[in-house]
Amino acid sequence: xxxxxxxxxxxxxxxxxxxxxxxxxxxxxxxxxxxxxxxxxxxxxxxxxxxxxxxxxxxxxxxxxxxxxxxxxxxxxxxxxxxxxxxxxxxxxxxxxxxxxxxxxxxxxxxxxxxxxxxxxxxxxxxxxxxxxxxxxxxxxxxxxxxxxxxxxxxxxxxxxxxxxxxxxxxxxxxxxxxxxxxxxxxxxxxxxxxxxxxxxxxxxxxxxxxxxxxxxxxxxxxxxxxxxxxxxxxxxxxxxxxxxxxxxxxxxxxxxxxxxxxxxxxxxxxxxxxxxxxxxxxxxxxxxxxxxxxxxxxxxxxxxxxxxxxxxxxxxxxxxxxxxxxxxxx
Length: 331
Prior knowledge:
Elements: H1 3-32, E1 48-54, E2 61-67, H2 76-84, E3 89-93, E4 97-99, E5 111-112, E6 116-119, E7 125-126, E8 129-132, E9 138-142, H3 144-147, E10 158-160, E11 174-181, E12 195-198, E13 205-206, E14 209-210, E15 214-215, E16 229-234, E17 238-250, E18 252-256, E19 259-263, E20 266-271, E21 286-288, E22 294-302, E23 312-317, H4 318-325, E24 328-329
Parallel strand pairs: 2-3, 4-18, 5-13
Antiparallel strand pairs: 1-2, 1-17, 4-22, 6-7, 6-10, 8-9, 8-24, 9-12, 10-11, 11-12, 14-15, 16-17, 16-21, 17-20, 18-19, 20-23, 21-22, 22-23
Helix pairs in contact: 1-2
């Protein structure tokens, strides 16, 4: 199929097959978890995510089908998706996908891209990069669940480096404060998991060094494509390489503390070689292309799927992140 045909098919299937399943699941779940506070309920369950993947010839495209629940593998819904795509599918079981936060992990001054950081209440995530606001102020960029504790943080809350799991404490390791974030939505699709933190006066920042790679070269304006080689520097797995396996992935359900949240228009990446591209604690990592230009912000991953069997990583397109926060990349 050509790419426009895949995009049109994906949009149609999300509306006719996937969204009705989410609505039905929400009604059933509300009865099953009646004892759970209503604020913690989310209408999404893990079913199937759809995106764009390469075709067999390398010049055409197929529908990327990512199965998030074993119960969906032999379901009539999945069979209808296969039939609608006339068999032109890149189908993989990816299982449950989690936010990438957990246990460079040491104290870093100046602040360094890829190092451990976090809201004082979370374990630890990754310092993605540095950005500039319209007024010219410097900010740290990472995920909402790293800097804003999944919407629970308040403007001015302490951000520490290293994160709590890595021994960071207040006030000695406080490097800044939560500034603003894109709220994670429970009842509608999310596009980004992103937040900003101010940098405390007197704290230096190395805004360009990508440890083990080279200097950051700004944000890419080129279109992503399947097979693109990418790299990242993260708190847990350090410097790793991978490749884009799908893009414009919709209906991806990711497990957070506040519930299972849906994400649309996401990028899927698998590790190159024998290792994973990311693990817990790499949330917030900046992903760059071969020219060391920023292309995405890592936020989640699972342990299933991928050519090497080491799982898949999900990331927000960097353009969407910068636009949502109204900032520009600082280099």
